[in-house]
Amino acid sequence: MRRFARVALLCLGCGVCSLLYGFSQLALSLEQEPGAGRERQARDPAADGARRQAGAGREAAASAGRGEAGASRYDYMKTHPSEKMHLAVVACGERLEETVTMLRSAIIFSIKPLQFHIFAEDQLHERFKDILDDFPYEGKVNYTLYPITFPTESATEWKKLFKPCASQRLFLPLILKHVDSLLYVDTDILFLRPVDDIWSFLGKFNSTQIAAMAPEHEEPRIGWYNRFARHPYYGVTGINSGVMLMNMTRIRRKYFKNDMTPVRLQWGEILMPLLKKYKLNITWGDQDLLNIMFFHNPESLYVFPCQWNYRPDHCIYGSNCKEAEEEGIFILHGNRGVYHDEKQPTFRAVYEAIKNYSFGDDLVHSLLQPLELELRKTMHTYCGRVYKVFIKQLTKSVRDLYARRSKGR
Questions:
Q1: DSSP state letter for 316
Q2: Beta-carbon count within 10 A of 55 CB
Q3: Is the pLDDT of residue 341 over 60?
Q4: For labelling alongside 62, which of 17, 29, 318, 339 has CA 20 to 30 A away?
């Protein structure tokens, strides 16, 4: 009887071992199944994001689009690039010519197709159409005109904030719901290199960043926010919103920390409470509100160098944008109306050169050479003393454009 029990126990042990072996082989085969690994990564976005952030190059760019909710839409866009770059501008009052000149500068050098989103007062729409329809786009540019739109219950208050219509930019993520990413620029911006290059910063965002801007100042001794602001602001000297790159999918999904409630609020919920709280303390309107938001959410901002938003403050007190000194100005921002007066002739010379350039003309003889002659005449001014930074990158952009055309033949 004991012998029979031993045999039965031995058979049972062999059976269990066989069963365990079978399960191990089944698990191994599942791990080797090509689709199984991808499905597991899709179900574990946090681990996937961590692995990608540990890498470099392509892996870092891919992880840049993973938002707080673990969404993979932006990862998809990095591996399947959108055919168009989206650029938005808001034009009110006497800003039509300035806006058109900005759009011209974007068209001249950019490589990928552009989609312009132009928010303008109703009386400007026909004039925009007449001008833009005559541009020789060569299939590379489309545009859409929009009315100025604010929340109905507070439209007057938003429109009066700082300059007319300037605060429209705050509502772009809520209006352009179909747009994943967007570059917003003021009307007084000039692109001196392809829009593609600043657009590429989207791929450098880490998993928490939703927007990119440049500092308001590089030199704290002349900074406005750190000396005069009566509200919170980002970093040491604040940020300037004249050039603002946005992952709008992330903006719409994010819940923002704030100093009004312990509950985090979404973009559309936080704007009016911020305005009500700080209305008497803000000077620069919507830019101040953005500074307050990113003060409380600093992890959400990517900061790019001053050469991507070069303003008179970078040269009128002495040259204080080292990146521009080394590589030239990439984006020129002629705030304070310097394109239209004689206070900063260096800025005005660049504006006039691009405004008067005719599409199809030789860029060297019709743009670069006349511009350099004009810039030399400004050397009696502080900005004129460093006039070479105004033409250094522009010269390279022209050379690169002709190289691309030659290679494409």
A1: B
A2: 12
A3: yes
A4: 29
